[in-house]
Amino acid sequence: MTAKRAPRMSDRDFLRGVVLTGIAIAFGVGASRYPIWEYGNTGPGLFPLIVSSILLLLGITSIARAFLAREAPVKLQIRLRSIAIVVVSLCGFALLSELANMILGIFFLAFVAPLASSPYSVKRSMALALGFTAIAFVFRELLGLQLPLY
Amino acid sequence: MEILHNLAFGFEHALTLNNLMFCAIGCIAGTIVGLLPGLGPLATISLLLPLTYSIPVDGAIIMLAGIYYGAMYGENVSAITMKIPHASSIVMCIDGYALTSKNKTGLALFTAGVSSFIGGTVALVVLATLAPPLGKVALLFGPADYAALMLFGFVCVSLVATDSLVNGLSMCLLGVLLGQVGTDVTSGVERFTFGLHLVADGIGLVSVALGCFGVAGIAKNLDNRDHRSPFRGKINLIPSWPDFKRILPSALRGGVVGSAMGLLPGGGPVIAQFTAYAIDKKVSKHKNEIGTGAIEGVAGPAAADEAAARTSFIPLMSIGIPENAVMALMMAAFIIKGIQPGPNMIAQHPHLFWGLVASMWIGNCFLLFLNLPLVRYWLSVLNLPYNVLFPAILFFCCIGTYSINNNVLDVLITAGFGLVGYLFIRLQLDPAPLLLGFILGPMLEENFRRALLLSQGDFRVFVSEPISGTLLGLIALFISWQVINYFRARRRPPRNPDVALEPQ
Fold first, then answer.
1. Would the N or C end of chain A have less CB density within 10 A of its end CB?
2. What residues have CB less than 8 Å from A64, skipping those under 6 apart?
3. Cβ separation of A86 and B215 shorter than 8 Å?
4. Residue A85 and residue A32 share a domain
5. In B238-322, which ranges are continuous DSSP H helix?
6. B218: which chain A residues are within 8 Å (Cβ-Cβ)?
7. Domain extent listing, chain B
8. How many Cα atoms are found within 13 Å in the side-chain-facing hemisphere of A66?
9. A86 vs B219: CB contact, 8 Å cut-off?
10. B497 with A23: Cβ contact below 8 A
11. CA–CA min distance A26, chain B (Å)
12. Using CB atoms, which residue from B180, B392, B414 is nearest to A90?
């Protein structure tokens, strides 16, 4: 027998259990606020409560398995850079389209998203922005999508 | 005879100029998007779903089906030429890419194309004969049985398609919970909406799908940063006669195996191609060559892939329960178009059902006679550097989600699910069962509550009904089998982690 390992916060399997348990508790608490039974019938709270209870069991099972596992823990590897840039470019697109117009949003997307990959080139981003704008116009005029371009 | 009559009726509908065009557009768009790394059928269908909004029902469904098998074909092509693995084309990376290494790309592509055609044709016979009678069986199902069947589907998907039952089932249930967001149809209570008006009707399906599969997939690809060399080899599509003779038996076997695997709950192309490959390895005349670039290693899985993709429509269209995540997405698309798949679908919309069946075969012809010769041009998509490709995919994600409700909040939700999906992927939780649970969740709840209403709140109804009792018994059996396996494995000395095989 190899030595028992202590789950750490970087252990992927342990964290998975924690995340699932957390989600289950959040939904379970939310569900318990809705009526479980109404007029002798099932209320809106019953079903989510049952599902989140099962999910809670599964989450606890995951945590238990991480404690019981004999192999060395797998480290959770998250590189926040790419996903952060991608999410920021999408949010920027959405906010600019709402507050100003969609062409600005498209330019934001075309200039920010490529930051996630190297090498970065302003020229290419410019070309992307112009290309996307052209496609957006085609969508609006030919396919009838209602895009608030300007 | 009735089948022939019905098929003729279907071809009448599928062969109109409009429907032919939609089928062709679907196949080609699906192939091109399916070629791209990181975009499997789920992402492809959800990315192209908004395109079908303004198309009439028959055309939209024919086009979606075309997108689906086009995407699968595209995946095979990118697996053969560049060893880009997608979920449903992992096997193709073995022998298909080995053939490319031997400068026989054309042969591999031809084999994949012809085998898909043969597998699809076998599946078509199964589909036309089996779907209508199965619909009659489905009429025996009560609400408790439907609820149990969906749970059974969750367990099967988790066992088959993911690496562990606990992880897969957790994702299914999490999906069910996400499906709870919005207004409860029975009582009118808004659940888990935090007062947000936009999610009062529930979270948008396209947002979830594009977030988890499109956006998260892009971030994952960006993390990997392995530069693949684009395919520059020659493609000679005409095979020699002896080669051609080797395709046939494998493809027929694959077609039969795939059709069967496509019918099972939790089944579908992924499991079908693995099974076909394993069988070819056992019984094929050239079994010793498989693994090093044998035609059989391409023909069997390609046929099974295609056959399973077709027959997995059967549970959806005759019972009304999708067996995997792709079919769940298909069901959502049907419902968006105002068609409720289920036992009544074939009777109520015969032209839709038989038209779809016929269009699948026409789609096969398109893939064979149009896509195959043109494949070298489609491959040029992959010559685009990824830092042009991924902003473009993001752009289409934005436009696609925006135009559903003409609301930027949907784009924000997509971004949110991109982040969540990425974290799930990193925690080794597969988002596909989540999508299945998300789409089936409301149906599961409806049937669950209806069953309890009929039994006046007595939970024993789920055990006492014969069909539901049997299904729940099977679920209990599967789970105890998994638990016993786990503890048995623990008693054995630990394996060397270096040689541990990655599951699928």
1. N
2. A17
3. yes
4. no
5. 241-263, 269-283, 295-311, 313-314
6. 82, 86
7. 2-199+236-388+433-490
8. 24
9. yes
10. no
11. 10
12. B414
Q: Is residue A132, in this structure, part of any structural domain at all? A: yes
Best of B395, B414, B456, B461 to mutate (most A CBs within 10 Å, chain A) = B395
CB-nearest to A87 from B166, B419, B449 is B419
Q: Is residue A87 part of a domain?
A: yes
Whether B412 sits inside 8 A of A90 (CB atoms) is yes
* Domain identity same for A85 and A139: yes
Question: Minimal Cα distance from B409: which residue of A?
Answer: A94
Domain count within chain A: 2
Compute the radius of gyration of chain A from its Cα atoms: 24
Say if pTM beats, i.e. exceeds, 0.90: no
Q: What is the CA radius of gyration of chain B?
A: 22
User: Any idea which residue has 């036309």 for tokens?
Assistant: B128
- Would you call A11 helix, strand, or coil by DSSP? strand
Q: What range defines the domain where residue A23 resides?
A: 12-68
Please tell me which of the candidates A31, A113, A143 has its beta carbon nearest to residue B391.
A113
Q: Do B299 and B251 meet the contact criterion of CB atoms below 8 Å apart?
A: yes
Tokens of residue B300, six digits = 């069997």
Instruction: Give long-range contacts, CB 8 A cutoff, 24+ apart: A98-105.
Output: A98/B408, A101/A148, A101/A149, A101/A150, A102/A136, A102/A147, A102/A148, A102/A149, A102/A150, A103/A133, A103/A136, A103/A149, A103/A150, A105/B398
Predicted complex ipTM: 0.91
Tell me the C-alpha distance between B467 and B471, whole Å. Answer: 6
Our CA-based measurement puts residue A15 at a distance from the nearest CA of chain B, in whole angstroms, of 8
- Whether residue A93 is contained in a domain is answered as yes
With respect to residue A21, please indicate whether it lies within any of the assigned structural domains.
Answer: yes
Contact between chains at B429 and A16 (C-beta distance less than 8 A): yes
Return the beta strands (E) in chain A as ranges: 37-38, 41-42
Best mutation site among B199, B222, B410 for testing chain A: the one with the most A CBs within 10 Å?
B222
- pLDDT per residue as tens, chain B (504 positions): 677 888 888 888 888 888 899 898 888 888 888 887 767 788 888 888 877 777 888 888 889 888 888 888 888 888 888 777 666 677 778 887 888 777 788 888 888 888 889 998 999 889 888 888 888 888 888 899 999 999 998 998 888 777 788 999 999 999 999 999 988 877 778 888 877 777 787 888 888 988 988 888 888 888 876 656 666 666 666 777 877 788 888 889 989 999 988 888 777 787 888 888 888 888 877 777 777 778 888 888 889 988 998 898 888 888 888 888 889 988 988 888 888 888 888 888 888 888 888 888 888 888 888 777 887 777 777 777 888 888 998 998 898 888 888 888 889 999 999 999 999 989 988 888 999 999 899 999 999 999 998 888 888 889 888 899 999 999 999 999 989 988 888 887 655 544 444 433
Q: How far apart are CA B304 and CA B167, in angstroms?
A: 27
Last residue of a domain, one of A32, A48, A68: A68
Q: Do A20 and B392 touch (CB under 8 A)?
A: no
Residues 70-99, chain A: which have Cβ within 8 Å of B? 70-72, 76-79, 82-83, 86-87, 89-91, 93-95, 97-98
d(CA B315, CA B307): 14
